[in-house]
Amino acid sequence: MKARIFWILLILATPFVSAQEPVYVCPMHSEVTQHEPGQCPICGMDLVLKSSRENDGEHASQHDEMGHVQHSPVTTPLFEVDEQQQRALGVATSTATQRALQPNLSVQGQVRWAENEQLHIHPRAKGWIEQLYVDVEGAYVKKGEPLYQIYAPDLVVAQDDYLQLLNSLQQVGDEQKQANFKQRGRTRLKLLGMTDEQIMRLERTQETRYTVDYFAPQAGYVTALNIKEGMYIMPEQSVMTLSGEQALWLMLDIPPRYADQVKVGQMVHISSHAVQGHWMGKIAYIYPDLDPVTQTLTARVPLRADSDTLAVGSWLNAHIELPQLEATIVIPVSSLIQVGEKNRVVVKTSANEFSVRAVTTGATVGDHIQILSGLTAGDEVVTNGQFMLDSEASLQGLLPESSSTGPMMQHQHGGMHD
């Protein structure tokens, strides 16, 4: 705190140029201004008088062959800080370079059952569950295994009708008509849930069965079980759900700032801290809505992996292959000064001279950020001590007004004093 007060006192020693209309500004929050003395509502510091300087120029721009705006070298007001003061502030710089960034997006995702390969089991006839062969969720069943046994009056009547039909076929016209009637009877039984084997046994024994077993139409895990023995069930009721043993989805949480970079079809590399192995898949679908809890977008990646290996509900690490970005001016993120929706940087123009420039930013990749306008390749941006330098420029009225225009070259001396 003492160090901050010391530097603020130094800043207050800066000579000011009188303005036609006085403007007072916070030394630490340059966006706070007013026309009379007072205190900053953010930090409580006394506002200091800011000199009013007229802009006598603007950025020049031109268009390249592709129609993109190309900005000419930016000219902004300069202020001096000697080497001793720079050392005290710990000023460090980095060179702005023009290069293409390769985004590296690593996220997490949760394993879930693939909804498009889930089979919901509904009874074909209403009745009572006499016996439940699969009585726990998570159980694995093979195709053709019995699931439950039901007493369904409609199914009993359909069996009796079929047996009567078989006994009276000799009284029905020619063989073709007999075959048609028999097929209609068999179809009725199949639509009520009986298998070919059960119908053949009925034809052979000529005996109606009052309880009938229902069998698994596919192999998989029972991921929902909605019945108990003795329950009365109806066709509109889903009594259980079977999920394919190798039908999994990985649901990735994508930060919204990557929405324009993540696309359907991109390759995803998947790994786990808990299980050895590496899996690959492609993004099949990106849900349009944000998750209300995580505030992220959800991308779906189908997985062909055994659920015994990748447990449903587990979290996995995923690396998404993103396309390389176009070559632009790139600087360290640490050099950026963000004030509301505006961005600026402090540029070291010579050994003891600095200026503040408004910049337009693009994508952030790791520790670097794209600069779409405001800098040129070779500019030395300040990465440490820039906030105190920005305050010095604010006190002298040398801040750019916006990201698109700024004052022409002015030269100030003796900005910061011992």
Please outline what is shown here.
This protein is α+β, with helices and mostly antiparallel strands and 418 residues long. It has helices spanning 2-12, 83-89, 153-168, 175-191, 196-205, 386-395, and strands spanning 23-25, 33-34, 48-50, 61-63, 69-71, 78-80, 92-95, 97-99, 104-113, 118-121, 127-132, 140-141, 146-151, 212-215, 220-225, 232-233, 240-243, 248-254, 267-271, 278-282, 285-286, 297-303, 315-321, 328-332, 337-339, 342-348, 353-365, 368-373, 380-384, 411-412.
Descriptive overview:
This protein is of the alpha+beta class and 418 residues long. The chain has 3 domains: 56-101 and 326-412, conserved putative lor/sdh protein from methanococcus maripaludis s2 fold; 104-115 and 245-321, Elongation Factor Tu (Ef-tu), domain 3; 123-237, OB fold (Dihydrolipoamide Acetyltransferase, E2P), CATH 2.40.50. Helices cover 17% and strands 34% of the residues. It is built from 6 helices and 30 strands. The chain has helices at 2-12, 83-89, 153-168, 175-191, 196-205, 386-395; strands spanning 23-25, 33-34, 48-50, 61-63, 69-71, 78-80, 92-95, 97-99, 104-113, 118-121, 127-132, 140-141, 146-151, 212-215, 220-225, 232-233, 240-243, 248-254, 267-271, 278-282, 285-286, 297-303, 315-321, 328-332, 337-339, 342-348, 353-365, 368-373, 380-384, 411-412. Strands 6, 7, 8, 24, 25, 26, 27, 28, 29 and 30 form a 10-stranded mixed β-sheet that branches. It has a 7-stranded antiparallel β-sheet with strand order 20-19-23-9-18-22-21, with no helix packed on it. Strands 10-17-15-12 form a 4-stranded antiparallel β-sheet, with no helix packed on it. A hairpin with a 5-residue loop joins strand 4 (61-63) and strand 5. Helix 3 runs antiparallel to helix 4. It is rod-shaped and about 115 Å long. 27% of the residues are buried.
